[in-house]
Specification:
- The structure is a single chain.
- With 409 residues, this protein is α/β, with parallel strands linked by helices.
- The chain has helices spanning 2-21, 34-49, 63-75, 92-96, 104-109, 112-115, 119-123, 148-154, 162-174, 186-201, 203-210, 215-218, 221-236, 245-253, 266-272, 308-322, 324-334, 350-361, 374-388, 394-407; strands at residues 24-29, 53-58, 82-86, 126-127, 130-131, 133-135, 143-147, 178-181, 257-262, 281-285, 293-294, 298-301, 364-365.
- The protein has two domains: 23-139 and 296-356, 3-Layer(aba) Sandwich (D-Maltodextrin-Binding Protein, domain 2), CATH 3.40.190; 143-291 and 372-407, D-Maltodextrin-Binding Protein, domain 2, CATH 3.40.190.
- The protein is globular, with a radius of gyration of 23 Å.
Amino acid sequence: MKSMKLAAFLAASVALPSIASAVELEVTHWWTSGGEAAAVAELAKAFDASGDKWVDGAIAGSGGTARPIMISRITGGDPMGATQFNHGQQAMELVEAGLMLDLTDVAEENNWKDIVFPSSLLDACTIDGRIYCAPVNIHSPEWLWLSNKVYEDLGIPVPKDWNEFVATAPQVEAAGKIPLALGNQPWQSNLAFGAITTAVAGLDVWKQVNVEKNMDVAAGPEMAAVFAAAADARKLAAKSTVQDWNQATNLVITDQAAGQIMGDWAQGEFQVAGEVAGKDYTCLPGLGLNAYLSTGGDAFYFPKVDDPEKEAAQKRLAKILVEPATQVAFNLKKGSLPIRGDVDLSAANDCMKKGLELLASGNILPGGDMVWSPDVQTQAGDLMVEFFKSDMAPEEAHAKWVEILKSGL
């Protein structure tokens, strides 16, 4: 009996250090839809398995709703352990203010510069040669998602591109369906416009306007055609009255709408609903006209905290987020692509495989957050909301858009 008690005591003694070293980290993000929740659970599972504890701080709504809350907490002295931002300039001012943890030692120890692809993802985390975030995925917003059943019931082929999709709209409407599902959140209108831009105008025009900042091209005929196409989208979405993006996706899943312009994160919703890519739905990167990927996505930043144990846990989480097993588990659920090319994605569905092929081909662009300031992004987004919710002429919207871009030069 004594030996059994001694063994129990020793076992407890061995267990105590790992319990004592476990650290709780509150992690804030805006992943709250069914598919997103399933994906973020994989990150929490990986962190918890390491001995620490993920305390979920999901904020309902879009990034536009969540980011001001996150920033207010950080600047107000109530920092969380880690927080999601998109790749790009969203956290730059916080870094410059000295409020974010430097992760350069973690990145160097784990060879992030050699494994993160494309390199622009890590560049977006780098300020003055120091690395301040851990990228977790590549998200491209320029996809057209189609309900195969809507077209099967009509007895017509599933469209292969945006032009065919627009041409079939009268038949879809005559059948009592919504041609284009579009939620009322402001960012969705801006996303649709961005997708239409590259689909209609092409990659070269996008680069000239957004990378080279050529305002003559921005004001030219190629972009005028984009605004005309956006007016078509506005008409096709007139009867779409839902609010959230995943509600719009659900209209496609339930065959109430023919299609939706949305990022590849829509795959998570189809997956949760038991839909099969290529059978139940079709996905067209670049709206089927100019297939490419923009390399936006998500990264985690770690606000500075006056607690050495918590800081050590922050760095442990940063390391885990980039590890192969975490990358696979998370991105298969999220519908996004991993930020490293040395992982096994044999379980990827048809749509994810299309994305992987595009990534491997090098047919990629930087995300909008990487090329324009948050102020320009906000103004452009507000304009798109006004355009999609009114009868503003395409020519008027085009002229206002050019002025917004010029203000950011």
